[in-house]
């Protein structure tokens, strides 16, 4: 897999019927290793090890209903009260982070109403703070620390 602009971590992989799998610490099982999953696992590791997010408060591949259609958020971190705190949309490294990607995470966050969103393709990351009352979006220089 491609080296990302995220801290490397000690990960476990294996082959199943000739296809690569990576161990997901949150789901506690091996999942199919795609370029997007490679980014997602790096983001989860970053949140756990560098920003002190509790493992129990992070969910990957969580479902939500948007306009009567089932969607999945890549990563949602919750605060200690169980409210969405951070929503992350992961893309494969070759996928550019276009306005369409921001529109996608904004639609998802319309349901979650988290104060922070992140979009990343593993090479480039955009972190934003959302004021849901004024609809103001402020870009941040770094990922938000847990409980910020």
Characterize the structure shown.
- The protein contains two helices and nine strands.
- It is of the alpha+beta class.
- The chain has one domain: Alpha-Beta Complex (tt1808, chain A), CATH 3.90.1570.
- β7 and β8 form a beta hairpin.
- The protein starts with 12 loop residues before the first strand and ends in an 8-residue tail after the last strand.
- It comes from Spirosoma sordidisoli.
In brief:
This protein is of the alpha+beta class and 148 residues long. The chain has helices at 35-49, 99-112; strands at residues 13-16, 19-24, 29-32, 58-66, 69-78, 84-90, 116-120, 125-131, 136-140.
Question: What coarse outline follows from CA principal-axis ratios?
Answer: globular
- CATH architecture tag: Alpha-Beta Complex
- Uncertain parts: none
Total number of helices: 2
CATH topology name, in short, is: tt1808, chain A
What topology emerges from the helices and strands here?
Blueprint: E1 13-16, E2 19-24, E3 29-32, H1 35-49, E4 58-66, E5 69-78, E6 84-90, H2 99-112, E7 116-120, E8 125-131, E9 136-140
Parallel strand pairs: 6-7
Antiparallel strand pairs: 1-2, 2-3, 4-5, 5-6, 7-8, 8-9
Task: Give the key terms.
about 150 residues; alpha+beta; tt1808, chain A; six-stranded mixed β-sheet; three-stranded antiparallel β-sheet; about 40% strand
